[in-house]
Every structure is written in C-alpha cells, then in structure tokens.
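Entry 14: structure prediction run for Glucose 1-dehydrogenase. Input pasted below.
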Amino acid sequence: MNRFEEKVVIVTGAGSGLGQAAALQLAKEGAKLVLVDINQAGLDDTKKKVQEVASNAETLLVTANVATESEVENFVNQTVERFGKIDAFLNNAGVEGKQDLTEDYGVDEFQKVVSINLNGVFYGMKYVLKVMKEQGYGSIVNTASVGGIRGVGNQSGYAASKHGVVGLTRNSAVEYGEYGISVKAIAPGAIMTPMVEGSLRQIGGDNWEEAGKQFVQGNPMKRFGKPEEIGYLVAFLLSTQADFINGAVIPIDGGQSYKY
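Run finished. Output tokens:
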C-alpha cells in the first residue's frame, strides 16, 4: 500500500521502540518523515533502518526535547519550512519513570515524567493543530497507555501523565473535528521495547527476562506485544481511511485492559 505517498508525517520518540516501528511502517507506505528524538544516535539508527525498507524515503531528522516548548515549536516550523505542510503527526515521545508507591514517589521524578509525557504531548498538539487548522485537514495519534485508562501500581507519574494524554485527545477531538482534523490515541500494553525492558530491569534486575515471563502470564494472550504491531495500527489511524475515527482511545494490549 502507498497510503502515505506524498504525505508528510512527524514522529516524535522516533529513535527507538514504538516510534521507530511506526516510522518504518510509514516509510514502507511512502511517507515523507520528520523524525524527532532527544537521542541523535537513535535518530541515525532509525534513518538507517528507514533507508533499508524504503531507499527513496525522504527524511528530516530533528534532535529535540519535547518537554521544552521552544524545541517543539522549532521542529514544527522546520517541517513546514521543508515540506510546506503536515499531513499527520504521531505524538509519541515519552518515558516511564521510576517505580514506587505514591507516598514514596519523588516530586522531582513526578514532574519530570509529566513534563515529557503530558506537557510534551500538549506542546506538540498546540503547534501542529495550528498548522492543520490552517490547512483544513490532518490526523493526529497520541501515544497514551493502558496506564492511561486504568490504574497501574507503583507508577503514579506515568499513570497521571497518560490519563492526561487521554483527556487532551478527547478535548481536541471535540474542538477541531469541524476543521477536518481527527485526533485519537492508542493505549499500548506491554510491548517489548527498550522502555519496557528498562521497567523489567527495575523489577527483576539481572533476572529481568524471567520477570518478563512472569509478567505476561497476567495477559490474556500470554505474550508481549511486538513494536511492529503498533506500527500497523498507527499507520491505519493516521491514514485517510481512519478520518472519521475521532476522539477514540484504542487499546492494543492483548486484552489486558479488560481483565479484572
């Protein structure tokens, strides 16, 4: 499929994990990509992999911290200057933070997680929505989490920030639908990415792989999700085929969010 031929798509958190997987799928489908991450080495790795799956893919790499408003405004401006438009936006960059009970959760850690996961998503929407409103079209997918639609123990900063992403998604869907813009969110469960590996290392240390095997027993499908499975969903949701899906928060978690 070439659903994104001549389409310009921004992907934040593109240097690894879900962002990288989505970028690869979008590249396969013809997208012109603006790849954003705080880690330049990660961006270089993603660009290399993009060229392997789509040798003619046009890419713009921007190193940015999404928790800094001016840096978000800059990558949006660079996109418009280079390509003249923004067709779609995967607002994905995020961190998990430390695991601890709420009473023991550090205030600085809480603020750090919220500044990236929630403020960063807000900044991205603020500046991309302005461009899309002027265009009269566009599609945004925000990366929330199962932790944004239900409680998750020992992760108050992460859960609070991802619940906020859900709220921003639904609010903007109501505000901008009349301008031909659709805004939705995905709510991934445990997908085997560097971030999830880091979480398992917090739990299991050197035995993190065994901790992972135990963890997935609580999932109805008894396995971790694959990053490419997120890529497939994101590509559909950002395509014009999903324009009438507006305000939805879609779990992709093997049924985890429905299990009591």
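Notes: DSSP finds eight helices and seven strands in the chain. Will compare against the previous run tomorrow.
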